[in-house]
Amino acid sequence: MKLDVFFSQLAHKIRASEVRELLKWQEKKKIISFGGGFPDPELYPVDELADIARDVILLYRGEALKYGTTEGLDELREEILKFMKRFGIKVGGLDNVIITSGSQQAIDILSRILIDPGDVVIVEKPTYLAAINAFNLSSPKYYGVPMDQEGMKIDTLESLLKEIKRRNERVKFVYTIPTAQNPTGLTMSNERRRRLIELAEEYDLLIVEDNPYSYILFEPVKYEHLKSLDKTGRVIHLSTLSKVLVPGLRIGWVIAEEDITRKMVLAKQSMDVCSSTFSQYIAYEAFRRGLIDKQLKILPKFYKRKRDLMLCFLEEYMPEKTHWIKPIGGMYIFVSLPDVVDTRELLTEALNRGVCYIPGDSFFIDRSGRNTMRLNFSYPKAHEIEEGIKILGELFREVVDKRLFTKVAA
Amino acid sequence: MKLDVFFSQLAHKIRASEVRELLKWQEKKKIISFGGGFPDPELYPVDELADIARDVILLYRGEALKYGTTEGLDELREEILKFMKRFGIKVGGLDNVIITSGSQQAIDILSRILIDPGDVVIVEKPTYLAAINAFNLSSPKYYGVPMDQEGMKIDTLESLLKEIKRRNERVKFVYTIPTAQNPTGLTMSNERRRRLIELAEEYDLLIVEDNPYSYILFEPVKYEHLKSLDKTGRVIHLSTLSKVLVPGLRIGWVIAEEDITRKMVLAKQSMDVCSSTFSQYIAYEAFRRGLIDKQLKILPKFYKRKRDLMLCFLEEYMPEKTHWIKPIGGMYIFVSLPDVVDTRELLTEALNRGVCYIPGDSFFIDRSGRNTMRLNFSYPKAHEIEEGIKILGELFREVVDKRLFTKVAA
């Protein structure tokens, strides 16, 4: 039977996340993956988590297995408040923190409770594509702000805000990943962070600060979270254990004004009743037993080595006039190739040769950046980094040398 | 600062789930709860789950802790296909089943991919209120179909469908809990099930069959799932481990045509990337080790005893002219009191006296049923059932005797 007629307008609009689709493809074939934003499974504290998983059930019995409150386990929220405080984020209390099923759910909830069709959402250019996909479900209008070495260009943002005001459009929020941004790896300077907060106040808008990567910094730099600079409750801070501990527990959190967390909880009630109580108890014990702290010590060193390897092989194998950003943290290197290289067009060939990356245009709301790509260095093994970059380098050099021109154009 | 201005129209519309709010209240005070739809924690296989939780991490290592595919763990979906087959539901293969974070998430996803504002959704009268809350996020128009001892009145449904067709309105689906319905405990007869499927074909509409309770039947009756009668792919079957195993893992599933599961997966990608991989591995092992089967054997006997206790005390303590439905399964007894008893108005007094129930009007889209209430018998302990029903009986008899009239009206 024809089922198409039953779908809502929204359903007709939803497109597959290209990253997720790529990953499925990749699971079926042995391939070197620079695609997903996966932590290295070698860093999963498997044995500790096996013990914790059993212990929380034996310790908390039915409590760890029942329906929980929608806002999340009090004990875990307490731990998160303490944890956030160590990073300069001080908020009133438990009512300012809720647990979500990964940060993605937080983004989806915010999309639903903040965006009406046509509302303006301002994003970095490029930005995290799964956030865009979630926002799209509420049909916003996007404006993108370009970035440089200090992150989002705040002067450009200011001009944009003036222009938007002149047009009488309604800006709901600026979505930013200020630290070790996805996909660029860029980090916003402290000065710009302060300026961003000022602009938010001046133009009366919210800021959604997505922060999965600030726990993985390779240099002894000290960045102030936007939430820690926020005096008026405009910043909604999102974070997650997915990159720090393991992704499979689906534990994320939101720090925000109570008015906002309350609305989020109301929406979440209808969305999934509550996040996994069991996962929350495990996360709680992981904090309590110092496992998160242990991870925080190990991760940066481990990933720095992988970043450096990738940088080194990019230098060795990429064609002339290829540029990339050396990230001070996170999981990605963003690469700009000579204009003749169309990374989207070349992806199939790259996959055929056994390497996966994300074409850069996926991260641009205007689909520009066809000569860019995002490379993840956290997941592949060291030897795969060399092998994969070598394969990509060869492919792109063939294109630059026009040797592949006919083949690819066909 | 004033945050109200930032909320979307949707956010302004969302209301708290009364059940969830009641439950929060109840957690803070020692109270006998006939409120939530909770399994008895005594039935949680705590020690088995503690072993399984540790074992799956030790067995599957990083696999059990990583990001999973959005549609869910293949191994678990295989087990669910086998499980469903035992209940007469035979579908093509893995592409017809997806895992969700509880059935609630499935309902929310369906709300988003099926309903455009103004689309008609047909529900039983009364029906599960959290489904209504999730559908509300997409602003449908509801029609309710009354029920009798054989479940939804299919003749009335047919007249309604004719009338809706005459009005040129678009029916998207009929939402039904055919077996041991929430809140009434009523079960649709097999004859009506067949008739319902015929009507769905005749009027070209979908059926959402929500099935949390068919695993808890107190009599040796054999009901055919709507999905097992479905020849044209119109039935979307939802189920969950929440009532059978434990709720805190958040494992639900959907059986449907591939066109539908595919759209659901696309929506879910943006909603939470994937459900907890770890929970899915635990559920998989629970199936594999026969733990689900063990639960299926224990549950009906255990809950039948509780149902019978509650029926017995209702008989003893409720005022004259109180009626209730003897459920053949599930977790609820739906009680109709004499018209003078307004269960919503009396709830505060009941809570003061230490007993919680859900006022029946919560389950009616037209807010009728002010003299009804839903009592849950699965969660309270045996002595609480006696004590709680006695307290409620006294309260309602005072009202019937007009002794409370002035107090309550004030």
What is this structure's SSE topology?
Two copies of one chain form a homodimer.
Chain A: H1 9-13, H2 18-28, E1 32-33, H3 46-60, H4 74-86, E2 97-100, H5 102-114, E3 120-125, H6 129-136, E4 141-148, E5 151-152, H7 154-166, E6 171-176, H8 190-202, E7 206-210, H9 226-229, E8 235-240, E9 252-255, H10 258-272, H11 277-288, H12 291-317, E10 323-324, E11 332-336, H13 343-352, E12 355-356, E13 358-359, E14 372-376, H14 382-400, H15 405-409
Parallel strand pairs in A: 1-12, 3-4, 3-6, 6-7, 7-8
Antiparallel strand pairs in A: 2-9, 4-5, 8-9, 10-11, 11-14, 13-14
Helix pairs in contact in A: 3-11, 4-11, 5-6, 5-10, 12-14
Summarize the structure.
Chain A is α/β, with parallel strands linked by helices and 410 residues long. Helices cover 45% and strands 14% of the residues of chain A. Chain A has 15 helices and 14 strands.
Radius of gyration of chain A, in angstroms, nearest whole number: 22 Å
Overall shape of chain A = globular
Biggest pleated sheet of chain A = 8 strands, mixed
Strand content bin of chain A: 5-15%
Protein model, in words:
Two copies of one chain form a homodimer. Chain A is an alpha/beta fold. Chain A contains 15 helices and 14 strands. An eight-stranded mixed sheet of chain A has the order 2-9-8-7-6-3-4-5, with helices on both faces. Chain A has a four-stranded antiparallel sheet with strand order 10-11-14-13. In chain A, helix 4 packs across helix 11 (277-288) and helix 12 (291-317) packs parallel to helix 14. The longest helix of chain A has 27 residues, at 291-317. The radius of gyration of chain A is 22 Å and the shape is globular. The mean pLDDT of chain A is 94.
